[in-house]
Amino acid sequence: MDLSSIFEMVVLSSAMGSMVAVLILGVKWLLKSKLSAFWQYYIWFLLVIRLVVPMGFETPLSKLNVIVPAAQKVHIDQNSPEINSSQPASSMKVKNNSSEVQSQEKGSVQEVNSHGFNYYFNVAGIIWAAVAVLSAAIILFVNFLFTLKINRESWCKDMDTVKLLERCKSRMNISRFIPIVYDTHVGVPSLLGVVKPQILISPDLLNNISYEEKKYIFLHELAHFKRKDIFVSWIMLFLGIINWFNPVILFALHRMREDSEISCDAYVLSYLGKNEYRRYGETIIDFVKFISNSRKIPGSIGIARGKSNMKRRMTMIKNFKNKPQKWWVILAFALISVFIMGMTNLPGKTVISANEKNDFSIRKSNIDYVNIVKKFLPQNSKIITSDKTKEEDNVLLKDLDNDGRDEIITAYRLAEETSGEDEKISILVLKEKEGNWVKVMDEPGAGIKLDAALTADLDGDGKQEVLLGRRIGGTAAQLSVYGWSNNGLDKISREDIYYSKLDVVNVQGNSRQDIAVWQHDTGEAYIVDVLKWNKGTFIQDEENYRGYFKEVVVPYYEEKVKAVPDTGFYWYYLADAQIKAGDKKDALKSIDKGLQLNTGYPSPENFNKLKEKAFK
Fold it and tell me: What is the rounded distance in angstroms from the CA atom of residue 476 to the CA atom of residue 470?
């Protein structure tokens, strides 16, 4: 998985986390005092889960979603027959990391700007990674130095103090060895360490506080240990580093830390008598004056973190009631609602459209690239053109290796080669290296023009494969797959596949991408299949039929039967798509409609075979 893929996952997770954070804040505001201090804190773990788990799961709400665009593509269409004028996924919106270039009747070619969305997204990913790595390195380094320093400090050997700590541990059923370490830099008493926990306290402070205050300090720090707050604080710290660009997440994590202290106070109060609540609160207030002189050490938690949260802590202590609340039904409903909505996948799209043009602009300097291409063409060869297109319309720019710089893609024909059934073309790909253009692919083969140039991660290894298609007939094209090597682009597909139209599909819960192949049948009807990459060839991926057929194929044929309701083959293919989308009830209705029309094609036998599939 490359950096841009990781950054995309982080951005999507952060956006979804922001929604969860807002929902949590809304629930907390609605329930207000009805939520105990315990639940005020632990409801935030739904946000932590959302940020830690990169992918959501499917819920009924996910039916509103489509899957995030997957691949980058360039599609060229010169003098296409009428059958290709209607794109199967025309209702699907194209994201900037998916590009299509399509020749129009006047021959104009739309191209991806060399510094388009991908380029800036990659730059943003590099900046994000640099800030995150630097922040993490600084925090870990500071913590490492402080831990080394603490390991050289002496332990408290005052027997009365040690015995008091042991009594507090016994009261909380803690058997773990936790020493008291003298340190003059922490200011307020703190707990440090996940693996080897220790209580840090200034020797001067320890000698000038009462026995009762020592007890409250120890109970508070032991409560942090019992609740695994140090471990959670590290998780929150690194979630903040990963989402440093998102103020909503940073604010939510700040509130979670504040609620952690309030929840910890409530936990301590559950071990105290009512007559001790006030004195415990006064002890916390007494330590606030030490905060300004206290060093904030990553991975440590003190009895008084800051002054901003003090009012809320005192209010909780004043109103604390150590008994179960009666609002558990509302609470459970709220938690489940937040969890389901929070874990539902972001709205996205299954497929990239093959007919969206408004995201791209015409390059003004195409003629320069034509001259570059001509330097690499063999003698007696020419760039493929038509009656409606010029050379500059057929020299295309596309970032094929996701490095933020465009490669040049074109197709040419040798002068002695003539049009006909055996017509051949060569696909030429040029890459800029250190200011010079070099040839990375020059492959001859059957065809009349370059049909498609796409990039997609077919095997989920984080590297984009290159898919190049040659138009070999009016409605037929041939697709080959290539991979990058030190020598350039090498063909890695053992056998080619044939298609009329092509889409690239994301696979939910997987970093790989599939392709959807549309093969022309009759009229504007196509036989559609979803294929996955398997050891140099494509095979059916029936496990991922549902999403693509539901979001793309079914709507396509619903439009067709709406426009031409008396055409039997559209009802047939609609029923087939509905079966593959998992909607067998509607499929049976479509089959019955097709049988009633009895148009001859497909035959009633074919409709009945389809009905058998629907009943399975």
Answer: 9
DSSP H or E segment with residue 477: strand 477-485
Distance of CA 573 to the CA centre of its chain: 33
Decide the pairing of beta strands 300-302 and 396-398.
unpaired
**Residue ranges per structural domain of the chain:** 124-327, 505-616
Nearest to residue 97, comparing CAs of 454, 434, 367, 490? 454
97: closest CA among 464, 480, 507? 464
DSSP 207-240: TTS-HHHHHHHHHHHHHHHHTTHHHHHHHHHHHH
Residue of 523, 593, 540, 582 lying closest to 88 (CA atoms): 523
For residue range 423-443, list pLDDT tens digits in order.
889 999 999 988 899 999 999
The token pair that represents 72 in the structure block: 């980058």
Which tokens is 360 given? 């791209």
Task: Write out the two tokens for 10.
Answer: 């982080």
Among 303, 198, 252, which Cα is nearest to 51's? Answer: 252
Q: What is the pLDDT of residues 252-285, one digit of tens each?
A: 999 999 888 888 888 888 888 888 888 888 888 8
Enter the tokens of residue 208.
Answer: 């000038």
User: Which of 47, 127, 30, 102 shows the shortest CA–CA distance to 393?
Assistant: 102
Other Cβ atoms closer than 10 A to 104: 14
- Alpha helices by DSSP H, listed for 117-210, are 117-151, 159-171, 203-206
Is the pLDDT at 294 greater than 60? The verdict is no
Beta carbons of 521 and 527 less than 8 angstroms apart: yes
> Please, which residues have CB within 8 angstroms of residue 586's CB and are 6 or more apart in sequence?
578
Taking CA atoms, 49 is separated from 14, 20, 44, 128, 498, in Å, by 12, 10, 9, 22, 44
CATH 3.40.190.10 fits 505-616, yes or no: no
**Sequence-separated (6 or more) residues with CB below 8 Å from residue 523:** 83, 567, 569, 570
- Closest by Cα among 77, 526, 94 to 353: 94
Half-sphere exposure (Cβ direction) of 140: Cα atoms closer than 13 Å:
8
Which amino acid, one-letter code, is at 25? Answer: L
Identify any residues that bridge with 17 across adjacent strands, giving them in sequence order. none
Rounded to the nearest 10 degrees, how much is the dihedral formed by the CA atoms of 58, 64, 68, 70?
90
- CB contact burial 358-383 (16+ within 10 A = b; e otherwise): ebbeebeebeebbeebeebbeeebeb
Q: Which two tokens stand for residue 454?
A: 């796409």
Residue 111 contacts residue 362 (beta carbons within 8 Å): yes
Which H helix or E strand runs over 443?
strand 436-446
**Rounded Cα–Cα distance for residues 613 and 616 (Å):** 5
- What DSSP string describes 408-438? EEEEEEETT--SSTT-EEEEEEEEEETTEEE
Residue 313, Cα to own-chain centre: how many angstroms?
37
Q: The pTM is what?
A: 0.56
Do the Cβ atoms of 327 and 35 come closer than 8 Å?
yes
